[in-house]
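Reopening this one. Same input as before:
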Amino acid sequence: MLNRRKTIRAVAEGGLAVAIAVLLNLLPIWQFSAGGAVTAASMLPVVFYAVRWGVPSGIAAGLVFGMLGGMISAAGFVLVNAWSFLFDYCFAFMAVGLAGVLYRKPSGLLWGSLLAGGARFAVHWASGLIFWGEYAAEGQAVWFYSLLYNGTYMLPNAVLALIIVPLLTTVLKKQKI
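Same output, byte for byte:
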């Protein structure tokens, strides 16, 4: 019975984390016309969930978040093919779940946010190399174009998370949550 309760709680928390992440994703601070955005720390709920429940649960929540976010935001963007959707929305957001390697560690949220941002960036960068190289300026290396394009929104997202996490943990400790 305990295992079943734990599973129900994990699934409920995962659904809540994904719902909050999708809502935060709908509040872009800065949006690129060809995709990618600086959001109101939309990865943090999935990072928090991954650190709380571990890598497999984090990856699952990241996948659901990416697919929902992709269906909502990709509607206005051209996709090269199904593989580009898999890379930019499924694999990239599944990588956020890797924060779960810091499962229940005291500094898991902070380092998990950094790990999640880096892992997600790596997948977006690879996607840029594979699918979006034609948008690089003439004479510009595709790897550099992908680095600049994806870094322009992923770096601010990571910095926002690194600012918000200490504030959030301070508030949670004061509230004893």
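So the earlier flakiness isn't reproducible anymore. For the record, The beta strands are 28-31, 37-39.
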